[in-house]
From TrEMBL:
RNA-binding listed as a keyword: no
Name this polypeptide is given: NAD(P)H-binding protein
Gene3D superfamilies per record: Dihydrodipicolinate Reductase, domain 2, NAD(P)-binding Rossmann-like Domain
Keywords assigned: Oxidoreductase
Keyword NAD carried by entry: no
GO molecular function annotations of the record: oxidoreductase activity
Domain of life: Bacteria
Organism: Gluconacetobacter asukensis
InterPro entries: AASS, NAD(P)-bd_dom_sf, Sacchrp_dh-like_C, Sacchrp_dh_NADP-bd
Length: 363
Protein backbone atom coordinates (compact mmCIF):
# COMPACT_ATOMS: atom_id res chain seq x y z
CA UNK A 1 0.00 0.00 0.00
CA UNK A 2 1.37 3.40 -1.03
CA UNK A 3 1.49 6.13 1.61
CA UNK A 4 0.19 9.46 0.33
CA UNK A 5 0.02 12.95 1.79
CA UNK A 6 -2.70 15.25 0.47
CA UNK A 7 -1.93 18.90 1.29
CA UNK A 8 -5.00 21.09 1.59
CA UNK A 9 -8.27 19.99 3.20
CA UNK A 10 -10.61 22.06 1.05
CA UNK A 11 -13.27 20.61 -1.23
CA UNK A 12 -10.81 19.39 -3.85
CA UNK A 13 -8.24 18.07 -1.38
CA UNK A 14 -10.93 16.22 0.55
CA UNK A 15 -12.25 14.65 -2.64
CA UNK A 16 -8.75 13.52 -3.64
CA UNK A 17 -8.19 11.95 -0.23
CA UNK A 18 -11.56 10.19 -0.33
CA UNK A 19 -11.08 8.88 -3.89
CA UNK A 20 -7.65 7.43 -3.07
CA UNK A 21 -8.71 5.99 0.27
CA UNK A 22 -11.71 4.20 -1.24
CA UNK A 23 -9.47 2.11 -3.51
CA UNK A 24 -7.71 0.36 -0.65
CA UNK A 25 -4.43 0.85 -2.52
CA UNK A 26 -3.39 4.02 -0.70
CA UNK A 27 -2.94 4.97 2.95
CA UNK A 28 -3.89 8.64 2.95
CA UNK A 29 -3.03 11.45 5.35
CA UNK A 30 -4.82 14.76 4.81
CA UNK A 31 -2.84 17.74 6.11
CA UNK A 32 -3.78 21.38 6.55
CA UNK A 33 -2.89 24.21 8.90
CA UNK A 34 -6.59 24.94 9.54
CA UNK A 35 -8.04 22.55 12.12
CA UNK A 36 -11.69 23.50 11.45
CA UNK A 37 -11.07 22.78 7.77
CA UNK A 38 -9.69 19.36 8.62
CA UNK A 39 -12.67 18.68 10.86
CA UNK A 40 -15.09 19.58 8.04
CA UNK A 41 -13.35 17.43 5.42
CA UNK A 42 -15.84 14.99 3.91
CA UNK A 43 -13.69 11.86 3.77
CA UNK A 44 -13.84 8.23 4.82
CA UNK A 45 -12.90 7.14 8.35
CA UNK A 46 -9.63 5.58 7.22
CA UNK A 47 -8.20 8.95 6.12
CA UNK A 48 -5.86 10.31 8.76
CA UNK A 49 -6.19 14.04 9.48
CA UNK A 50 -3.15 15.97 10.61
CA UNK A 51 -2.72 19.65 11.36
CA UNK A 52 0.55 20.98 9.93
CA UNK A 53 1.96 24.30 8.76
CA UNK A 54 2.00 23.58 5.03
CA UNK A 55 3.53 26.99 4.33
CA UNK A 56 6.87 26.03 5.92
CA UNK A 57 9.11 23.57 4.02
CA UNK A 58 11.23 22.91 7.12
CA UNK A 59 8.14 21.80 9.03
CA UNK A 60 6.74 19.79 6.14
CA UNK A 61 9.79 17.79 5.09
CA UNK A 62 9.93 15.64 8.28
CA UNK A 63 6.21 14.82 7.87
CA UNK A 64 6.90 13.54 4.37
CA UNK A 65 9.46 10.99 5.51
CA UNK A 66 8.22 7.48 4.82
CA UNK A 67 5.60 8.62 2.31
CA UNK A 68 5.65 7.83 -1.39
CA UNK A 69 4.11 11.05 -2.71
CA UNK A 70 2.51 14.35 -1.79
CA UNK A 71 -0.42 15.75 -3.76
CA UNK A 72 -0.88 19.49 -3.33
CA UNK A 73 -4.44 20.80 -3.37
CA UNK A 74 -3.41 23.87 -1.39
CA UNK A 75 -3.76 27.49 -2.59
CA UNK A 76 -1.35 28.33 -5.41
CA UNK A 77 0.79 30.62 -3.24
CA UNK A 78 1.80 27.59 -1.12
CA UNK A 79 2.94 25.53 -4.11
CA UNK A 80 6.63 26.36 -3.86
CA UNK A 81 6.83 25.56 -0.14
CA UNK A 82 5.20 22.15 -0.57
CA UNK A 83 7.27 21.30 -3.65
CA UNK A 84 10.49 22.32 -1.88
CA UNK A 85 9.66 20.03 1.03
CA UNK A 86 8.97 17.16 -1.37
CA UNK A 87 12.33 17.68 -3.05
CA UNK A 88 14.08 17.67 0.33
CA UNK A 89 12.25 14.50 1.38
CA UNK A 90 12.88 12.77 -1.96
CA UNK A 91 9.23 11.85 -2.59
CA UNK A 92 7.03 12.24 -5.67
CA UNK A 93 5.21 15.55 -6.05
CA UNK A 94 1.95 16.29 -7.91
CA UNK A 95 -0.11 19.49 -7.85
CA UNK A 96 -3.09 21.30 -9.35
CA UNK A 97 -1.69 24.80 -9.64
CA UNK A 98 -2.61 27.05 -12.55
CA UNK A 99 -0.19 29.76 -11.44
CA UNK A 100 2.58 30.27 -14.01
CA UNK A 101 5.25 31.56 -11.60
CA UNK A 102 4.67 28.72 -9.13
CA UNK A 103 4.97 26.17 -11.92
CA UNK A 104 8.30 27.63 -13.00
CA UNK A 105 9.57 27.11 -9.45
CA UNK A 106 8.38 23.49 -9.51
CA UNK A 107 10.15 22.92 -12.83
CA UNK A 108 13.39 24.26 -11.33
CA UNK A 109 13.07 21.89 -8.37
CA UNK A 110 12.40 18.96 -10.70
CA UNK A 111 15.70 19.47 -12.51
CA UNK A 112 17.71 18.06 -9.61
CA UNK A 113 15.09 15.84 -8.00
CA UNK A 114 15.45 12.13 -7.31
CA UNK A 115 11.68 11.68 -7.61
CA UNK A 116 8.96 12.58 -10.11
CA UNK A 117 7.59 16.13 -10.21
CA UNK A 118 4.28 16.43 -12.04
CA UNK A 119 2.75 19.91 -11.84
CA UNK A 120 -0.64 21.02 -13.15
CA UNK A 121 -2.47 17.68 -12.88
CA UNK A 122 -6.03 19.01 -12.70
CA UNK A 123 -8.62 19.88 -15.31
CA UNK A 124 -7.02 22.98 -16.83
CA UNK A 125 -4.12 22.94 -16.79
CA UNK A 126 -3.97 19.19 -16.85
CA UNK A 127 -6.45 17.01 -18.68
CA UNK A 128 -7.00 19.50 -21.50
CA UNK A 129 -3.27 19.46 -22.29
CA UNK A 130 -3.39 15.67 -22.60
CA UNK A 131 -6.35 15.95 -24.98
CA UNK A 132 -4.84 18.73 -27.08
CA UNK A 133 -1.56 16.88 -27.52
CA UNK A 134 -3.31 13.64 -28.44
CA UNK A 135 -5.31 15.35 -31.19
CA UNK A 136 -2.41 17.50 -32.43
CA UNK A 137 -0.04 14.58 -32.95
CA UNK A 138 -2.40 13.15 -35.58
CA UNK A 139 -1.91 16.13 -37.92
CA UNK A 140 0.80 16.38 -40.55
CA UNK A 141 1.00 20.15 -40.03
CA UNK A 142 -0.73 22.28 -37.41
CA UNK A 143 -2.55 25.58 -37.73
CA UNK A 144 -4.43 26.25 -34.47
CA UNK A 145 -4.90 24.67 -31.04
CA UNK A 146 -7.73 26.11 -28.95
CA UNK A 147 -8.49 24.97 -25.39
CA UNK A 148 -11.76 26.08 -23.79
CA UNK A 149 -12.91 25.01 -20.32
CA UNK A 150 -15.68 26.17 -18.02
CA UNK A 151 -16.74 25.25 -14.49
CA UNK A 152 -20.25 26.67 -14.42
CA UNK A 153 -23.45 26.60 -12.40
CA UNK A 154 -25.96 24.32 -14.05
CA UNK A 155 -28.71 26.84 -13.30
CA UNK A 156 -27.30 30.42 -13.45
CA UNK A 157 -29.47 32.90 -11.58
CA UNK A 158 -27.49 36.12 -11.09
CA UNK A 159 -26.04 38.89 -13.26
CA UNK A 160 -22.61 37.22 -13.34
CA UNK A 161 -24.08 33.88 -14.38
CA UNK A 162 -21.73 32.37 -11.85
CA UNK A 163 -21.53 30.60 -8.51
CA UNK A 164 -18.50 29.67 -6.45
CA UNK A 165 -17.57 26.10 -7.35
CA UNK A 166 -13.83 26.06 -6.55
CA UNK A 167 -10.99 28.21 -5.20
CA UNK A 168 -11.88 31.90 -5.11
CA UNK A 169 -8.17 32.74 -4.98
CA UNK A 170 -7.62 30.67 -8.11
CA UNK A 171 -10.42 32.38 -10.03
CA UNK A 172 -9.14 35.84 -9.13
CA UNK A 173 -5.58 34.93 -10.05
CA UNK A 174 -6.51 33.62 -13.49
CA UNK A 175 -8.65 36.71 -14.17
CA UNK A 176 -5.76 39.09 -13.41
CA UNK A 177 -2.43 37.52 -14.39
CA UNK A 178 -1.06 37.69 -17.97
CA UNK A 179 -1.81 34.70 -20.18
CA UNK A 180 0.61 32.67 -22.26
CA UNK A 181 -0.28 32.16 -25.92
CA UNK A 182 1.16 31.65 -29.38
CA UNK A 183 0.00 34.39 -31.76
CA UNK A 184 1.03 34.40 -35.44
CA UNK A 185 3.61 31.74 -34.64
CA UNK A 186 5.25 33.66 -31.78
CA UNK A 187 5.06 33.08 -28.04
CA UNK A 188 3.43 36.06 -26.35
CA UNK A 189 1.80 37.15 -23.12
CA UNK A 190 -1.73 38.43 -23.68
CA UNK A 191 -4.02 40.17 -21.15
CA UNK A 192 -6.62 38.27 -19.16
CA UNK A 193 -10.31 38.99 -19.88
CA UNK A 194 -9.57 39.82 -23.54
CA UNK A 195 -10.02 37.73 -26.70
CA UNK A 196 -13.77 37.50 -26.21
CA UNK A 197 -15.52 34.96 -28.44
CA UNK A 198 -18.86 33.19 -28.62
CA UNK A 199 -19.30 29.44 -28.87
CA UNK A 200 -22.21 27.03 -28.80
CA UNK A 201 -22.53 23.54 -27.37
CA UNK A 202 -25.75 21.51 -27.63
CA UNK A 203 -27.76 24.61 -28.44
CA UNK A 204 -26.47 26.65 -25.48
CA UNK A 205 -24.53 29.86 -26.15
CA UNK A 206 -21.44 30.64 -24.08
CA UNK A 207 -18.68 33.22 -24.12
CA UNK A 208 -14.97 32.52 -23.70
CA UNK A 209 -12.06 34.84 -22.92
CA UNK A 210 -8.37 34.74 -22.00
CA UNK A 211 -7.45 33.57 -18.51
CA UNK A 212 -4.07 32.71 -17.08
CA UNK A 213 -2.45 29.34 -16.56
CA UNK A 214 -4.64 26.94 -18.53
CA UNK A 215 -2.05 25.97 -21.14
CA UNK A 216 0.47 24.38 -18.81
CA UNK A 217 3.64 23.74 -20.84
CA UNK A 218 1.96 23.60 -24.26
CA UNK A 219 3.45 26.91 -25.45
CA UNK A 220 6.90 25.46 -24.94
CA UNK A 221 5.98 22.14 -26.53
CA UNK A 222 4.45 23.69 -29.65
CA UNK A 223 6.71 26.71 -30.12
CA UNK A 224 7.50 26.97 -33.83
CA UNK A 225 4.96 24.27 -34.73
CA UNK A 226 1.62 26.09 -34.64
CA UNK A 227 0.30 29.46 -35.81
CA UNK A 228 -2.10 29.98 -32.93
CA UNK A 229 -2.40 28.39 -29.48
CA UNK A 230 -4.53 29.77 -26.67
CA UNK A 231 -6.62 28.95 -23.64
CA UNK A 232 -9.90 30.63 -22.73
CA UNK A 233 -12.36 30.18 -19.88
CA UNK A 234 -15.99 29.49 -20.73
CA UNK A 235 -18.72 31.48 -18.99
CA UNK A 236 -22.33 32.43 -19.62
CA UNK A 237 -22.70 35.59 -21.79
CA UNK A 238 -22.12 38.91 -20.01
CA UNK A 239 -19.75 37.60 -17.35
CA UNK A 240 -16.54 39.09 -18.72
CA UNK A 241 -17.97 42.61 -19.04
CA UNK A 242 -19.05 42.52 -15.41
CA UNK A 243 -15.58 41.32 -14.39
CA UNK A 244 -13.92 44.13 -16.33
CA UNK A 245 -16.09 46.62 -14.45
CA UNK A 246 -15.12 45.13 -11.10
CA UNK A 247 -11.45 44.43 -11.70
CA UNK A 248 -10.49 47.35 -13.93
CA UNK A 249 -12.95 50.21 -13.61
CA UNK A 250 -13.40 49.73 -9.85
CA UNK A 251 -9.72 48.68 -9.54
CA UNK A 252 -10.40 45.61 -7.45
CA UNK A 253 -7.50 43.90 -9.22
CA UNK A 254 -5.34 46.04 -6.94
CA UNK A 255 -7.21 44.79 -3.85
CA UNK A 256 -7.50 41.04 -4.23
CA UNK A 257 -8.42 40.39 -0.61
CA UNK A 258 -11.33 42.82 -0.84
CA UNK A 259 -12.49 41.31 -4.13
CA UNK A 260 -12.36 37.85 -2.58
CA UNK A 261 -14.44 39.04 0.38
CA UNK A 262 -17.04 40.53 -1.98
CA UNK A 263 -17.33 37.38 -4.10
CA UNK A 264 -17.56 35.05 -1.11
CA UNK A 265 -20.11 37.32 0.59
CA UNK A 266 -22.33 37.81 -2.46
CA UNK A 267 -22.08 34.63 -4.55
CA UNK A 268 -23.60 31.41 -3.25
CA UNK A 269 -21.79 28.12 -3.59
CA UNK A 270 -23.63 25.39 -5.48
CA UNK A 271 -23.55 21.61 -5.70
CA UNK A 272 -25.36 21.79 -9.06
CA UNK A 273 -22.53 22.55 -11.46
CA UNK A 274 -21.28 21.47 -14.84
CA UNK A 275 -17.80 21.19 -16.32
CA UNK A 276 -17.52 21.89 -20.04
CA UNK A 277 -14.41 20.84 -21.98
CA UNK A 278 -14.02 22.03 -25.59
CA UNK A 279 -10.68 21.39 -27.31
CA UNK A 280 -10.32 22.11 -31.04
CA UNK A 281 -7.29 21.54 -33.26
CA UNK A 282 -7.00 22.47 -36.93
CA UNK A 283 -4.30 21.68 -39.44
CA UNK A 284 -3.52 19.62 -42.50
CA UNK A 285 -4.18 15.93 -43.05
CA UNK A 286 -3.66 14.38 -46.46
CA UNK A 287 -3.06 17.88 -47.81
CA UNK A 288 -6.44 19.22 -46.67
CA UNK A 289 -7.21 21.74 -43.91
CA UNK A 290 -9.07 19.74 -41.25
CA UNK A 291 -10.53 20.38 -37.81
CA UNK A 292 -11.05 17.92 -34.94
CA UNK A 293 -12.73 18.65 -31.62
CA UNK A 294 -13.09 16.93 -28.25
CA UNK A 295 -16.16 18.00 -26.26
CA UNK A 296 -17.36 16.77 -22.88
CA UNK A 297 -20.07 17.90 -20.46
CA UNK A 298 -19.60 16.47 -16.98
CA UNK A 299 -22.04 16.76 -14.09
CA UNK A 300 -21.77 16.22 -10.37
CA UNK A 301 -22.89 12.95 -8.79
CA UNK A 302 -22.61 10.84 -5.67
CA UNK A 303 -19.29 9.00 -5.34
CA UNK A 304 -18.45 6.66 -2.44
CA UNK A 305 -21.74 7.68 -0.87
CA UNK A 306 -20.82 11.38 -0.86
CA UNK A 307 -22.20 14.10 -3.17
CA UNK A 308 -19.44 15.57 -5.32
CA UNK A 309 -19.62 18.47 -7.74
CA UNK A 310 -18.47 18.25 -11.34
CA UNK A 311 -15.39 20.36 -10.62
CA UNK A 312 -14.49 18.16 -7.65
CA UNK A 313 -14.90 14.98 -9.69
CA UNK A 314 -12.92 16.20 -12.71
CA UNK A 315 -10.11 17.88 -10.79
CA UNK A 316 -9.64 15.14 -8.21
CA UNK A 317 -10.16 12.44 -10.81
CA UNK A 318 -7.38 13.86 -12.98
CA UNK A 319 -4.68 14.04 -10.32
CA UNK A 320 -5.66 10.64 -8.89
CA UNK A 321 -5.40 9.13 -12.38
CA UNK A 322 -1.91 10.58 -12.82
CA UNK A 323 -0.86 9.17 -9.44
CA UNK A 324 -2.17 5.75 -10.49
CA UNK A 325 -0.23 5.93 -13.77
CA UNK A 326 2.93 6.85 -11.85
CA UNK A 327 2.39 3.99 -9.38
CA UNK A 328 1.82 1.47 -12.18
CA UNK A 329 4.96 2.44 -14.09
CA UNK A 330 3.30 4.25 -17.00
CA UNK A 331 5.27 7.41 -16.18
CA UNK A 332 8.95 8.04 -15.35
CA UNK A 333 9.83 7.90 -11.65
CA UNK A 334 12.21 10.85 -11.75
CA UNK A 335 12.36 14.41 -13.03
CA UNK A 336 9.78 16.70 -14.61
CA UNK A 337 6.75 15.11 -16.26
CA UNK A 338 4.54 17.30 -18.44
CA UNK A 339 0.85 16.63 -18.90
CA UNK A 340 1.42 16.09 -22.62
CA UNK A 341 3.77 13.22 -21.72
CA UNK A 342 0.66 11.27 -20.63
CA UNK A 343 -1.14 9.13 -23.21
CA UNK A 344 -4.84 10.02 -23.49
CA UNK A 345 -5.98 6.42 -24.06
CA UNK A 346 -4.12 5.22 -20.97
CA UNK A 347 -5.54 8.10 -18.93
CA UNK A 348 -9.15 7.46 -20.00
CA UNK A 349 -8.83 3.73 -19.29
CA UNK A 350 -7.76 4.47 -15.72
CA UNK A 351 -10.29 3.98 -12.91
CA UNK A 352 -10.16 7.71 -12.12
CA UNK A 353 -9.62 9.07 -15.63
CA UNK A 354 -12.85 7.41 -16.72
CA UNK A 355 -14.76 10.36 -15.20
CA UNK A 356 -13.99 12.18 -18.45
CA UNK A 357 -15.97 9.49 -20.26
CA UNK A 358 -18.98 10.36 -18.14
CA UNK A 359 -18.46 7.36 -15.84
CA UNK A 360 -17.99 7.54 -12.08
CA UNK A 361 -14.53 6.77 -10.64
CA UNK A 362 -14.12 3.11 -9.68
CA UNK A 363 -12.38 1.75 -6.61
Amino acid sequence: MKKILVAGAGKIGSTIADFLDATGDYAVTLIDRDQPGLDRADVGPQVRRLRADIAQPDALAPLMAGHDAVLSAAPYHLTTAIASAAASAGIHYLDLTEDVASTRAVRDLAAGASSAFIPQCGLAPGFVSIVAHDIARRFERLDTIHLRVGALPEFPSNALGYNLTWSTDGVINEYIEPCEAIVDGRRRMVPALEGLETLGVDGVTYEAFNTSGGLGSLCETYAGAVRELNYRTIRYPGHVQAMKLLLRDLRLAERRDLFKDILEYALPVTQQDIVLVFVTVSGWRDGRLTQESFVRRIYGETVNGRPRTAIQITTAGAICAVLDLLKDGHLPAQGLIRQEDIALDTFLENRFGRVYQGRRPAA
